[in-house]
Design the sequence.
């Protein structure tokens, strides 16, 4: 399973969550819940963390935490590891308690994102299927930071309420707490009447499925931090989602560089045939330097996203497969590329033999390049089809960097 990012930096805010192994309960009794909160208080003392919101459910927990120092990983490992030992000792069990690693996504400190994360956590109990809105109130869920927001006497020392209240223009006073309670009651009604309670707020989907929560500027800042980590030699703690985001931004940068060097602009590309040297060069540049195989955006700036012949296969995929992206009925593929003798080891210096599927009545051209950024040159044109397979022998000096493609005339 692809791992989410572990970005650590001073002053970072995270939505963190841990779930029970195989969906099993991590809190069986109120004593377990009290033990977890005590352990959470200990880790705050050890790391300097500030907890802005929390909730304990049956098989998982949520935290909105701030790390004055870049110590998320150390703290989370200690929190889950220590609680697991205490849980196992109390219940005379052993082994894993949590399902793999915890999830932690960086949160933009801007008010709308910060508050969205706090609300997501505080409203977790009312989003549970079967919640009785008539018989229960949000403050009844005592294993949440919400009661501490409205009743200071129920507030642990390590819970920080001033930032959430302050972002709403409220003070930690009796009047401010009453206004906060009224606001949260209104949010409960939003959840109650939503078609999808888990997505009553547009930001909640990103909390559940994304690798960050924030603006485009915040995303760019996080990707810059990712790039700094990836530029080192110690490997990467990042997984599929964040790596794709990093590669997509890198692909956009490479496309700009490539088009500038080729002397073309975005508006020039749609008019070029799918197998044009310019498109091949740009596709090669992106694929060689990133993991992107599709367009990094939906704006049509990348040739990999187009489907020039409308056959349901992107031009980028057809380029890699050896089919012509401009012809819907074109099904040929380069079947093999090998020295004429067919033996790479014993045939150094032998000319290359290119074989491809051919269709009766078609005429082909053979192209070659040893530098895709400089484009292809024609080796032979007006090659008549000899179905089912055409063979072409390249008499130029063999080059291990040589790439070939076939065009249909």
Sequence:
């Amino acid at each position: 399973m692809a791992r989410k990012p572990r970005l650590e930096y001073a002053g970072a805010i995270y939505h963190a969550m841990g779930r029970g192994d195989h969906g099993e309960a991590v809190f069986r009794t109120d004593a377990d819940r009290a033990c977890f909160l005590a352990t959470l208080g200990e880790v705050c003392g050890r790391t300097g963390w500030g907890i802005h919101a929390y909730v304990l459910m049956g098989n998982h927990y949520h935290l909105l935490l701030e790390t004055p120092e870049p110590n998320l990983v150390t703290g989370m490992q200690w929190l889950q590891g220590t609680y697991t030992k205490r849980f196992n000792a109390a219940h005379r069990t052993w082994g894993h308690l949590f399902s793999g690693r915890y999830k932690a996504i960086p949160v933009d400190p801007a008010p709308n994102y910060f508050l969205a994360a706090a609300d997501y956590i505080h409203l977790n109990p009312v989003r549970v299927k079967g919640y009785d809105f008539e018989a229960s109130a949000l403050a009844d869920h005592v294993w949440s930071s919400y009661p501490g927001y409205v009743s200071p006497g129920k507030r642990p020392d390590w819970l920080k309420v001033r930032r959430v209240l302050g972002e709403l223009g409220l003070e930690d006073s009796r009047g401010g707490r009453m206004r906060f309670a009224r606001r949260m009651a209104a949010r409960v009604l939003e959840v109650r009447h939503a078609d999808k309670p888990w997505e009553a707020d547009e930001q909640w989907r990103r909390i559940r499925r994304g690798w960050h929560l924030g603006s485009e500027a915040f995303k760019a800042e996080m990707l810059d931090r990712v790039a700094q980590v990836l530029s080192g030699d110690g490997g990467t703690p990042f997984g599929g989602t964040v790596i794709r985001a990093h590669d997509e931004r890198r692909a956009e940068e490479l496309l700009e560089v490539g088009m500038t060097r080729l002397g073309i602009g975005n508006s020039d590309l749609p008019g070029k045939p799918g197998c044009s040297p310019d498109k091949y060069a740009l596709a090669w540049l992106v694929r060689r330097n990133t993991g992107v195989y599709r367009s990094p955006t939906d704006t049509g700036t990348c040739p990999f996203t187009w489907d020039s012949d409308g056959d349901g296969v992107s031009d980028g995929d057809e380029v890699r497969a050896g089919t012509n992206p401009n012809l819907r009925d074109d099904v040929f593929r380069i079947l093999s590329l090998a020295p004429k003798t067919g033996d790479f080891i014993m045939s150094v210096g032998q000319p290359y033999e290119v074989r491809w599927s051919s269709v009766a009545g078609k005429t082909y051209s053979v192209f070659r390049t040893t530098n895709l950024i400089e484009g292809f040159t024609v080796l032979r044109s007006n090659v008549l089809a000899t179905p089912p397979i055409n063979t072409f022998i390249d008499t130029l000096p063999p080059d291990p960097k040589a790439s070939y493609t076939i065009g249909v005339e």
